[in-house]
Amino acid sequence: MADATTATLKINDSEYELPILRPTQGPNVLDIRKLYGQADVFTYDPGFTSTASCDSTITFIDGDKGELWYRGYPIEQLADQSHYLEVCYLLLYGNLPTAEQMDDFERRVTRHTMVHEQMHNFFRGFRRDAHPMATMVGVIGAMSAFYHDSTDINDPWQREVAAIRLIAKMPTIAAMAYKYSIGQPFVYPQNELDYASNFMHMCFSVPAEKYNVDPALARAMDRIFTLHADHEQNASTSTVRLAGSSGANPFACIAAGIACLWGPAHGGANQACLEMLREIGTVDRIPEFIARAKDKSDPFKLMGFGHRVYKNFDPRAKVMKESADEVLDLLGIHDNPTLQVAKELEKIALEDEYFIEKKLYPNVDFYSGIILEAMGFPTSMFTPIFALSRTVGWIAQWKEMIGDPQAKIGRPRQLYVGEDKRDYLDVAAR
Ligand code: SDX
Predict the structure, then answer these.
(1) Which of 121, 135, 233, 325 gets the most CB atoms within 10 Å of its CB?
(2) Residue 268 CB burial class (10 angstroms; 0-12, 13-18, ≥19)
(3) Minimum mean pLDDT among 137-146, 165-174, 252-261: which range?
């Protein structure tokens, strides 16, 4: 029998037909847009565990199978055969570029890698010990004060220029945030370097001596960018879409996304995970932390574990785990205690009934910190690197929303459980 095209909702003596929308892949969607108008009821879904906020053509996740596709291409193939700027083109324009299209795109991005010289003064207002994420939220938001010719969201050309500027300048600004936090001078981009090499050069070179980026490490850095590039309607992407739905300029929207990503339940988990692995310290202490993670009276959670969508291995964690072995081997780091704890923790957790029953697996943040620390980044730079990588996903999703003729301002309702209407009481009567 053909699949039903509507669902019937019965409330008291009334029935309401809800259209069923069919995806290319994934669960069917009940269209409830007319429900409030017809039945005078809201749906209730804090955390949006069962709610599709939009339709999208960009990224697909199958949480049960542990699959992730960018524009239909599996993440494993992109991580292995593509590179980040090509993935940026794919996410922004929908298809893999021809050689000419790639050259043109790379040229446009490369020509925007420098920031307005006055932005250097902006950093000087921050305390030296400011977290680089605080700096990035501030500086990216401030870009709308420097680039007035790409803030009009109704002008497709300005939307395009804003997208290119953000992709091109995020590495420069992230590197500046890092340099500022360690008291070293800012390093200008070198346009003959590829995207990942340029970022590493801006982070690790100093005027006093030449710095050559190891191509194998740059390749690993580029792969980390690709693995973090987009991820459907996660919290920070939803933040960018909601901010964009009010007509806010693209720089303000990305600053909102960076702020949301900072939380330890989201992009801040990579920093929290490495700090947790360091706190565990040795393999013999793992049972103590597993017990704490299972103890409902203890707020402790295993950072880098669990996911709202993946109820199987996060495919990005698998690639990241292989990359961790490669990078540490490349750097001659053997018997890294943090990696040993991570691997043993993963093994023990995946054999534990609690984690099996709740389908908790390592996510993208579980191994990334080990690689980044081995490369020389401090933990405070882990989430800025996630933000740098995710900027293209945020921009692609923002452009998709702005270009959607159905787009309207996002404005959820609520289940009001406060006081019923009451009259003001004079203080003498209280
Ligand atoms: C990212 O959404 C995305 O796509 C995000 C992301 C992206 O690319 O944009 O993939 C990036 O943010 C990855 C997630 C990084 N966060 C962490 O590693 C922090 C640790 N993880 C948890 O905080 C948690 O798993 C979340 C926030 C990731 C998911 O939370 P959910 O979906 O709200 O699930 P939940 O908290 O309701 O957990 C379900 C159950 C709960 O137990 P019960 O209340 O049912 O008894 O599992 C438990 C939780 O207590 N649980 C954990 C756990 N994660 C969930 N218990 C111990 N350790 C954990 N890590």
Answers:
(1) 135
(2) buried
(3) 137-146
Give the sign of the dihedral formed by CA 192, CA 196, CA 200, CA 203.
positive
Residue identified by tokens 């295993």 is 302
Compute, in angstroms, the gap from residue 81 CA to the centroid of ligand 1.
30
List pLDDT tens digits, range 11-46.
Answer: 999 999 999 999 999 999 999 999 999 999 999 999
The amino acid occupying position 399 is K
Q: Which phi and psi (to 5°) does residue 10 adopt?
A: -110, 120
Q: Name the residue at shortest CA distance from atom 14 of ligand 1.
A: 266
Task: Evaluate: CB of 231 within 6 angstroms of ligand 1.
Answer: yes
Residue 335's pLDDT band, with cuts at 50, 70 and 90, is: confident
Looking up tokens 């200008």, which residue turns up?
188
- In terms of DSSP bridges, do strands 67-70 and 59-62 run parallel, antiparallel, or are they unpaired? antiparallel
Both tokens of residue 25? 């892949």
- Catalytic residue status for 365: yes
With tokens 């960009």, the residue in question is 58
The stretch 226-254 carries a mean pLDDT of: 98
Q: How far does residue 364's CA lie from ligand 1's centre (Å)?
A: 12
Kindly write down the DSSP assignment for every residue of 134-181, as one continuous string.
Answer: HHHHHHHHHGGGT-GGG--TT-HHHHHHHHHHHHHHHHHHHHHHHHHH
CA distance 429 to 80: 73
| Residue 59: predicted pLDDT | 98
Does residue 1 register a pLDDT over 80?
Answer: no
